[in-house]
Specification:
735 residues; mainly beta; 22-stranded antiparallel β-barrel; 5-stranded mixed sheet
Length: 735
Amino acid sequence: MKKFIIALFLGFSAMLQAQNTISGTVTDLKNQPIKGVSVYASELHKGTTTDEKGKFTLSNLPNGSLKISFVFPGFTTQYKTINPFQKENNITVILEETIFEMDEVIVSTAFNKLQSQNVMKVEHESIKNLQRKGTATLIEGLATIPGVSQVSTGTSIGKPVIRGLSGNRVLVYSQGIRMENQQFGDEHGLGLNDAGIESVEVIKGPASLLYGSDALGGVLYFNPEKFADANTFKANFSQKYFANTQGSNTSLGLKTATDNWKFLARGSYNTHSDYRIASGDRVTNTRYNETDFKSGIGYSNAAFSSVLRYNYNKLDLGIPEEGIAAQTASKETMYPKQGVFNHLLSLNTVFFFEKSKLDVDLGYIANDRSEFEDSPTAILHMKLKTFNYDAKYYLPKMGKLESIFGIQGMRQTNTNSGEEYLIPDAVTNDFGVFGTANYEWKSNVLQAGLRFDNRKITTEAQGIAGEEGSFEAIDTSFDSFNASLGYKTNLANDLTLRLNLASGFRAPNLAELTSNGVHEGTNRYEVGNSNLKTEQNVQTDLNLEYKTSHLEFFANGFYNHINHYIYTSPTGEIIDANAVFNYIQDNAKLYGGEIGLHFHPHPLDWLHYETSFETVTGKKQNGDYLPLIPANNWNNTIRTEFNIKNWLQDGFATLSVSSTFNQNNVSGFETQSNGYTLVNLGFGGKLTVGKTAFDINLNGNNLFDKNYTAHLSRLKTDGIPNMGRNIVLGVNLNL
């Protein structure tokens, strides 16, 4: 590995000295130059901005084709492919003013198209916009995206839910690498901090074609912070305060770049006391502390681009078991608690050839998870080590046909060293091979793909057979073929139709195959089933979008059929006062969708009204409802944009009313949930004091201190409500 990295960063640099350059001018429709346009080549992780005359230059570029985006607020995004490359290129780019959000380049799909060109509808949201909503955690921010929810344990632990599917049915990607952090557990959170993350993309539906097992329900794809523009140095400091938990979030980042080299580093610290409910009481031991560090170094020339990133995340999490007991604002966690350490190392390298390219991702994740009951000695201690590899070869373009061939795999080891075992020591090996093609003509796009996967799981025997905490040895293998077919067309100038049919799969996880003991927090004895089959689904998605200069409307509908859906069922037995549950399988179906409207009335250029409604229903084959299905939600937001003389620029004010409906469609082990309405306010912008400019935002969430309990809260069974009113103040300063 060491020799490989040295070759990437130094060897090719000495051998290949091509100096391809692209320069040009960016103007508006009136031929006026635009200053400050972001000109970015994502494959090189390299960018610049236009000067006062709208001019830009990018140098040391590869010989083959290159995709470059031109982004500026208030204008449509341009995405140009420069092909073939000469030693020098000069282009003129004309941007058209737009009222709605910018068209984003989607990284999580196969061909990295603009969203308007993409066959699959993917939700894209910048972390900056999520932070403007004043949410306390990253997962809370994600839950504001239509079709996304969370299973929560207080404020510190949240698991993403996409259209009713969660746990190992949803994959999380960070730095181009799939996150592996014992995510099967109910009390195992996302394990990511939003500092150093640029944006998130949400694939709502099976994505096994690109990502393999566990992408049966969808993918959360986090794009890391971009490097600085060439020949610049930037320093950034941000601070947030949360009144409800008396918490704070501090972050400091540095980054710099030359024409070839780039470097960044960011450190963050997050600390919170127990959260307060509407009555004024605090929920004991929901406090937590988080330390996060991210860094990256990259090099690019005419032959290749390579980026090495590292993320260290340390979590100290209190586990609430006493409900509303000791009242304190202390941030020091009590027992029981968790200690989680996560190291993520990723290397992305793109090799450029004359008419093709090879994109390689290598990743290593070391996850160390401990649980403490009543002393500093860990009763549960698991170490998960995962090596990932992903190679995609982009074949030479043939007319209007683009195609990709790829291989993907993973080797994972789990070892235990605590007094108790939640899952046995195990080795998991994945291997997949796939191909996909994209054909575009006029306003039509057709995309199709096929994939084969194998997952092999080997476990060690543990304990005395037949007793609690014992595991039998398993040596089993799972195979799956999956395919996808998508079509996009413009039914009219302003009306777009997308239709997708895709299959996905999920191999049973270790808990489902091997469990033999009391599951934490559920008060039930769970017994695994080594004969479980692979979950296999087929989902149909329909998306309609209508966009004009002052009106945007979308409607998404889906139907998802799952064969061999895995769930727990009571046996009627009792062991040590705990009911016994077995893991069994049945066919299931989920259906629903999202609908939304964004209205910008003319000539009130400062006013926006947005509304969206989301619904999902999940049932087993016998008609019983599936567990952990989020309630229907209707969200309405009024947003104004303004400037106040010379001291507040890019100002905004928002009023949001979120109505969650009753959830009466529950499984046999859940309780029904009452609906509730929350009112949120937000205000902010770029504030200038003297020569110093900084971004500020002030939020009031659950402004009327509503007492409510979310259906997917794991504290619901104890009668513990969600967080009351929370005032959030955030400041972001470029030093």
